[in-house]
Amino acid sequence: LELKGKALEERIAAFEANWGMSLDEFSRKCAEGTLAEGVYSYEVEKDFWEWEQAVTLQRHYESLRLQWM
Q1: Is the Cβ–Cβ distance between 4 and 61 less than 8 Å?
Q2: In this structure, are residues 45 and 2 in contact, taking their beta carbons and an 8 Å threshold?
Q3: Labelling 39: which of 3, 13, 33, 45 has CA 20 to 30 A away?
Q4: pLDDT in tens, 2-52
Q5: CA angle 55, 57, 62 (to 5 degrees)
Q6: Rg (the chain; Cα; Å)
Q7: What's the pLDDT at 16?
Q8: Which phi-psi region, left, alpha or beta, contains residue 63 (left: φ > 0; alpha: ψ -120 to 50)?
C-alpha cells in the first residue's frame, strides 16, 4: 500500500505542477468554463479523468492503510 500510495502521490503532484492547481480547483474551473485553455479538449478531459482516478485511489489506499494499523 505504501508503494502504491507513493506512486499515486507522485502522479497527483505531476498533474498539480502541470496545471498549477489542485484537482478541486481544476474541476471547478472546468465546470465554470474558466480553465486557461478556455475550451474542452481531449487532453483536458483525459487529464481530468486520470487525475480524478489517482486521487480516488489514493484516498481508498489511505483508508485501507488506516484500517490495518
Answers
A1: yes
A2: no
A3: 13
A4: 899 899 999 999 999 999 999 999 999 888 888 866 556 888 889 999 999
A5: 95
A6: 14
A7: 97
A8: alpha
